[in-house]
Amino acid sequence: MTLYGMDRGMWLQVMGGYAGWLMDGYTTIAYALVAVTVSTVFFPASIGIYGLIATFGGLAVAELSRPIGSIILGNFLGDRLGRKSMLTITIVGFSAFSSLKGLLPTYDTIGIAAPIILYLLLFMEGLFAGAEYGGGTALAMESVPADKRSPIGAFVQSGYGTGYFIVSFVFAALFSYYGKNGFAITGWRVLFFTTAVPGLLTVIIRFSTRETQVFSEIKREEHTARQPAVSLIREGGRPLILALILTSGLLFINSITFSFYPTLFILLHSAISGTLIGEYNGYINLVSLFGVWIGGLIGIIIVGRRRSMLLYTMIFIILTFPFAYLAFHGSAVQDLIIFSAQAFFEAMIFSTLPAFLSETFSTKFRTTGVGFAYNGGGILAGFAISIVLYTSTFTKSLYTAWTVWFFIAEAMMVAGLALSAETYHGREEDSIRQ
Fold first, then answer.
1. Which of 52, 145, 262, 386 could cysteine-pair with 39, CB 3.0–4.6 Å?
2. Structural domain tally of the chain?
3. Residues 283-317, buried b or exposed e (16+ Cβ, 10 A)?
4. Any idea what the Cα angle at residue 374 is, between residues 288 and 23, rounded to 5°?
């Protein structure tokens, strides 16, 4: 029995990639949601906004380790032993180190050692998470016919927003249950403990999947690269560099929007409750899910991954200034509407990214290539919120800093896309590089 031209095994592989993204969205946004709270848990309250900057610096630590993980795990597992084997191992490590954050001692207890241990856990978490995108994308996209990769890739990508949506309401429920003071003591720890749940579900799904037919064939024919990372560097060349420029800009924007929305609500509306912040962010991500799904469907009509992303990017750029102005000059409800609309159009850009990246790199080093291109772009993104906050101390305006960095990141996106080659022209034979 097939659905959308795909059998049960193919759908399990797609769900394996989707579940990994759900886990990533859940854990990353769990940290973003509690950033203001833990900024005074792991850093002295006396340093003010610099404690918040240092807290978001933890995201930079995690992002720095992700490309390392994509190379090490993607190279020695994903492109040599198989997508399924690697993904089962990585999700266990990802889930374990994410949950361990709930056990961390505070600054008042052990001083400067508290943020150091936090950063170490975030580094290890990022190491395992780094192999997720490359392996999950390869697992899903290699299982899908070329003409269906746009909507299916969009569905896999939407796992991140689904994780964000779920954790937002978990956060809201915990904040409502514990109250502001109780959440600062216990609630944030419980939130980190809950990251084990999506991790366990993902492991179960991946145990049920099979290896992709593409990888099984190249392994049977002994075409796997002995050193995929070396092959990537030698053969990746221009496509890899342009993919890194594209993802650096796109993920920078993603950080100063989705990961920053919870803190923006607090900075712009000091009287807003934690419960309402969780609920508002849940609604924003619900809207973003429709953006990525619709973007994927439109991608069927607009033949070409690069062409689709360029169109979505230009629409997003046109709306940047109006959205930024309205966001900083209105009520919390107005910001809910503005951020939801912004998230919708941003999610459209992400919709064809899995298909575009998977078709950019050869089968021999696809897991390594896709993982490094995506996570390498995330390095700058890891510093994004800290950069915007630090810049605002000079401009004396968070609005100005936020808006300027938007346009800088968008210029990077356009450059990466405009100079890249199209990966799909509507013909099956040119849809995957061998």
1. 52
2. 1
3. bbbbbbbbbbbbbbebbeebebbbbbbbbbbeebb
4. 55
Distances, alpha carbon 128 to alpha carbons 1, 74, 165, in Å: 35, 10, 23
- Give the residue numbers spanning the domain of 147: 8-424
Distances (CA, A) of 107 to 51, 111, 178, 317, 420: 12, 4, 21, 41, 47
Residue 166 lies in a domain: yes
Residue 430 lies in a domain: no
Q: Considering the domain boundaries, does residue 3 fall inside one?
A: no
DSSP class of residue 187 equals I
Quick check: is 429 in a domain? Answer: no
Helix axes 8-33, 49-73, angle to 10 degrees: 150
CATH code, 55? 1.20.1250.20
Q: pLDDT 10s digit of each residue in the chain, 434 long?
A: 566 567 777 777 788 778 888 888 899 999 999 999 999 999 998 898 899 999 999 999 998 998 888 777 765 554 555 556 677 778 888 889 999 999 999 999 999 999 999 999 999 999 888 877 666 666 667 667 777 888 888 888 898 899 999 999 999 999 999 999 999 999 999 999 999 998 888 888 777 776 555 545 545 555 555 555 556 666 667 888 999 999 999 999 999 999 999 999 999 999 999 999 999 999 999 999 999 999 999 988 887 889 999 999 999 999 999 999 999 999 999 999 999 999 999 999 999 998 898 888 777 677 777 878 888 888 999 999 999 999 999 999 999 999 999 999 999 999 999 999 898 877 654 444 44
**Tokens of residue 247, six digits:** 């993802």
Number of neighbouring beta carbons within 10 Å of residue 393: 12
Q: Tokens 């994509």 sit at which residue?
A: 70
